[in-house]
Amino acid sequence: MAADLHEHARVPLVELLHPQVAIVIDLATRIDTETSAPVSVELASGRVLHADFLIYAVGSGAPRATGAHQITDEARALAFRDELRGRPDAPVTVIGAGLTGVELAAVLAVSGRTVEVITSSSMDDTASGQAHLDRLSRLGVTVRTGERVNLDTIGADRTRLVVETTGFSVPTLAADSGLPTTADGRLVVDATLRVPGHAAIFGAGDAVFIDDERATHLRPACATALPMGSHAANIVAAVDEGRAPDRFVHGYVMQFVDYGGRSGRAQLVRPDDSERRFAVGGWLGGVIKEAICRMTLVWMRGERRGRSVPRYPEPASVPAEV
Fold first, then answer.
1. How far apart are CA 322 and CA 306, in angstroms?
2. Closest CA relative to residue 247, chosen from 271, 221, 211
3. Is 57 a residue whose pLDDT tops 80?
4. Which of 11, 88, 161, 171 is the most buried (most CB within 10 A)?
5. How far apart are CA 138 and CA 210, in angstroms?
6. Could you give the CA distance from residue 256 to residue 280 in angstroms, rounded to a whole number?
7. Rounded to two decimals, what is the model's pTM?
């Protein structure tokens, strides 16, 4: 969407959620655990929602406003797309070479843009990083490694479009509500995804920190958030039914990247997210990446027909018993 190859990437929530789920479109401003039992959520509209359980899954967004474009949500992505349309000949500088930066640079280059990537990392210290460098080079992208830029001033260069993809931050809702958080504002939960001291509140996704040694390898990604969300829902069901909750233990299988032009890479990883030697690139890598995206929606739509309990490999880098 941001690269102007697709009009939008929206999927209506009503297509993904169980028919018994009520959808409320509003802004949560505070979670109250003291004046109502067991938990309530105050909304910007003035409405208050009361619940027996709450799952905190607010995600992440842009770290802060800078002089560069950002594509961390739909509004920012559309603003960047409008700039692309209004300046069809302007070169693009992508700040950051994580998966978001690599994918954006690649698809922009495939669409015919002149693109450069600036990153503070070396990129060639892993097989995947080297593969990203090779693919971007073949697409004509200039990659400047080991460099840092001033994000507040780099956007002042009006001869080019600058987009930042260097990181994320989380909403302040948990901290504003007096819930336990890390220094960067993530909600602290235990190994079962429950907030310590708040039996009715659970957390999942980028905005959550799991205080457990089996979770040190987890990274912000849909490959993390989806199983966390599923586990949180299953834990709520277990507690509601009087059963003992299981701890959340998650291992990865593969890491995917879209290089544009029907090309991609599927890197096999160990459960602790360290790379294995095997990877699939080129056309087949692109097919696998697209298939995973489509199957994710198929899996989510399947939730409309009943609760599922997906199983994931356990990380091999931690002891079996803690």
1. 32
2. 211
3. yes
4. 161
5. 40
6. 10
7. 0.87
